[in-house]
Amino acid sequence: MNTQSTLEQAKSPSHFRAAICARTVLVGAWALIAALCCPAPAARAQDASAPAAAATASPSQPYVGKYDVYAGYVNFNSPHIGLIENGFHVQGGVNPRRWLALGVDYSSANGSLLLVPTELPAAKQVAISQALSQLMAAGVIPPTYVLTVPTDSYTQTFAAGPQWMIRHYPRATFFLRPSVGAIRERATPHPTNAVAVLFAQQLAPAGYKLDWTGFYGVGFGTDLQATKHFGLRAQLDIVHDHLFNDLLRDSRNTFRFSIGPSFHFGKNVAK
Questions:
Q1: Cα separations in angstroms, 129 against 67, 112, 132, 136, 179
Q2: Domain spans of the chain?
Q3: What secondary structure does DSSP assign to 47-89, as a single string?
Q4: Could you report the per-residue pLDDT of 16-45, keeping only the tens digit for each?
Q5: Domain 3-268 has CATH 2.40.160.20
Q6: How far apart are CA 40 and CA 30, in angstroms?
């Protein structure tokens, strides 16, 4: 069996359409942020003619709440395995300093992918290829048969740690953080024919497969302040993990994009 050909035939175009949609949302969000944070040419000209005292003043944020919470939409994109997931994302944090936040992070999403033999270790690929060749020779399956197993995925992430805040602009706060935590994923195969059923039973005898592992990476984003206590947050995390390392040959990178409202409250943090 030509495993590369199998992979090319198996990957559904819907995965690529979903990935393009997710990237479009991301680009649109950052374009909005840039438009709000960067002054127009006329505004820059006006600023240039302002008195020297105003020109040297730092555009600080008068209010920085001690606490903040966030809840919004999240999109997971793991392109190496063709997995797109959608769900929700929540965060809670405390600001001990204006430049530093400490917080907790949880996200949950579900989606689907097509599991194909090329994603497995080489030894399993060889065994599957030999078995399919025998079935084709016996006339059990046609020579054009492609082994794929549609699989549902439910993913949760758990993280905590510091976040560095850049509050140079009155209406926008930029932030950067290490993205380190644990990820839990449950994969449930849904084979569509007898051969795929046998394949799925070997990989997940219980009817599903569950795994925990750590992840690491980086996260960054922007909080746009609409009012004193309300804002719009857009953020992106890029992390690396190797879930199901007893089953999948390769580790993977996952892009997590999230957007939604943020709420700021509590005592004003001293400058």
A1: 57, 24, 5, 10, 39
A2: 3-268
A3: HHTS-HHHHTS----S--EEEEEEEEEEEEEEGGGTEEEEEEE
A4: 444 454 455 454 555 544 544 454 444 444
A5: yes
A6: 17
